[in-house]
Structure formats: C-alpha cells, structure tokens
C-alpha cells in the first residue's frame, strides 16, 4: 500500500463512529492490553483467557519464529489469526522481520539489524513503508476484515529519530508501553518468578496504562501464561476495563 493509501485507511478509521470506545458503567478507567508476537507456545491458552473474560486487546504482528518450527505469519497460523479477528481484537504492525533499529546513518535512512546474525539493511522511505506494511498484508490474506490501526511498534520498543519520522510518513504513529505496563514476561523467571510479577502488576497498574506481553517467550522457564488469568481477573476486580488502543494511540 502506498503512503497515500495508509493515510486514507487511518482517516477512515478515525471517521467511523462504530469504532468509538465507550467505557462500561462503573469502570474506574481503561487499560490497554497489547500483545506482541513471539515464540507463541502459550498462544492458545492466552487466547482462551481473553475469550473467557471478554477482553479485547491490540495485537502487534511480526513474522517471528515459533515453537512449531514455522513463523507467526505463515499460512499455518491463519486459523489462529482468523479467530482473533472474529473475537474483535485490533491489530497493528510490529515490522515484518522483527529486527532492531540500530542508528541513523544519514538523512531519511535508518539501520535495521538482526540480533540472530541474519545481517542488516539500511531502510529508506520506501523500504520502511514496505517493512511495516508486509505483516498487515499477510494478515489481510488470512482475514480481509481485520481491524488494523494506523500504529506500529518497533521490536523491543527501540526506535531512532529517523525510524519514527519515516514511519510517520507511511501514516503510522509509534506506540510503546507505559512504565507500569511492562508485565515482565520476557524477564528471567529465576530472578522474576510469576508470583512476584503478579503481585507487582496488580499493585502498580493504574488507569490509562498500556500493557505489553507476548504469546509466549522461549527463554522463560516459568511461562507467564500460568498467571495471566489471575492478572486479568485481579485487574477487573479493581474496576479497570480492558479496551483496544484508540486509533490515535496512547501517549
């Protein structure tokens, strides 16, 4: 999709009253759960919790290796993504290759580098738009009706000035997470066991937080999914209401 097409899609979302978010009565304030692609070992278990508690999230998608030996946007994952679309989740780009931005070598260019030894490239305007659009195109093949927001997230949340500026020219705003929204599922479970993460998150998450987690993290020995339902029910019990990110994102 061209830059003009991306901007038009974003404008259409902004203009659609059907997508307005209304907090339920008695809600102390919204929180915004975002889920990045990852190893995906616990993906079905996490999705089941979301479904049981009618939680809608914003799913940032990239084509990452999974526990099955495939990648998260390969055809084998189409049924999973179709089910999430049917459940009403929103989507946004997390880049295609899930490499990392590693500096700006000159005006209008940014370095995009693999941490798995696959090399690096320098992205210009066209290259950046293509990198961000490709996961959306993959999702649209599986489910053309998916709601895709004009947002993106850099792997690791690591950006450069040029990466942010180039993405903005593609019609996309960068969306990170708030300080208390880092749920900790990437941390070493020996130093940060599930019980400690659950206590910390329930104590610290406040209205307006943008939360981040993954569909499973390969390196974590104690899967975060084991406490995910306790986290969701605990936050709901505090009167916090899960909502997808608004179209303009959350600062």
Quick overview:
The protein is of the alpha/beta class and 251 residues long. It has helices spanning 3-15, 43-52, 78-86, 125-142, 161-169, 194-204, 225-237; strands at 29-36, 58-61, 90-93, 100-101, 110-113, 120-123, 147-152, 173-174, 210-214, 240-242.
Structure notes:
- With 251 residues, the chain is an alpha/beta fold.
- The protein is 33% helix and 17% strand.
- It is built from 7 helices and 10 strands.
- The strands form 2 sheets. Strands 1, 2, 3, 7, 8, 9 and 10 form a 7-stranded parallel sheet that branches. Strands 4-5-6 form a 3-stranded antiparallel sheet.
- Helix 3 links the parallel strand 2 (58-61) and strand 3.
- It starts with a helix and ends in a 9-residue tail after the last strand.
Q: Which keywords apply here?
A:
alpha/beta, TIM Barrel, 7-stranded parallel β-sheet, globular, disordered N terminus
CATH class: Alpha Beta
- Mean pLDDT, to the nearest integer, reads 92
Query: Beta-strand percentage?
Result: 15-25%
CATH superfamily: Glycoside hydrolase/deacetylase
Based on CA atoms alone, the radius of gyration comes out at 18 Å
Task: Just name the CATH architecture.
Answer: Alpha-Beta Barrel
Amino-to-carboxy terminus distance: 26 Å
- In the CATH hierarchy, the third-tier topology is known as TIM Barrel
Overall body shape: globular
| Main β-sheet description | 7 strands, parallel
Q: What percentage of residues falls in helices of 4 or more residues?
A: 25-40%
Please give the number of β-strands. Answer: 10
User: Could you state the order of secondary-structure elements as H and E?
Assistant: HEHEHEEEEHEHEHEHE
SS-based structural class? alpha/beta
Number of domains: 1
**Residue windows where pLDDT falls under 50 for at least 5 positions:** 1-23
Number of helices: 7
């Amino acid at each position: 999709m061209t830059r003009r097409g991306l901007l038009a899609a974003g404008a259409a979302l902004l203009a659609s009253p059907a997508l307005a978010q209304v907090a339920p009565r008695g809600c102390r304030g919204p929180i915004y759960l975002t889920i990045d692609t990852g190893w995906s070992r616990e993906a079905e278990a996490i999705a089941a919790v979301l479904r049981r508690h009618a939680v809608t999230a914003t799913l940032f998608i990239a084509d990452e290796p999974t526990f099955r030996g495939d990648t998260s946007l390969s055809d084998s994952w189409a049924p999973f993504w179709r089910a999430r679309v049917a459940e009403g989740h929103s989507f946004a780009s997390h880049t295609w290759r899930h490499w990392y931005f590693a500096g700006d070598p000159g005006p209008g260019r940014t370095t995009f580098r693999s941490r798995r030894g696959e090399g690096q490239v320098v992205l210009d305007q066209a290259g950046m738009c293509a990198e961000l659009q490709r996961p959306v195109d993959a999702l649209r093949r599986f489910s053309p009706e998916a709601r895709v927001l004009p947002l993106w997230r850099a792997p690791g949340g690591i950006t450069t000035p040029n990466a942010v500026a180039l993405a903005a020219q593609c019609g996309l705003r960068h969306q990170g997470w708030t300080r208390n929204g880092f749920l900790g599922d990437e941390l070493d479970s020996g130093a940060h066991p599930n019980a400690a993460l659950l206590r910390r998150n329930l104590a610290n998450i406040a209205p307006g937080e943008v939360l981040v987690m993954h569909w499973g993290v390969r390196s974590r020995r104690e899967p975060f999914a084991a406490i995910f339902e306790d986290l969701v029910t605990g936050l709901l019990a505090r009167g916090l209401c899960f909502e997808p990110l608004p179209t303009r994102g959350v600062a």
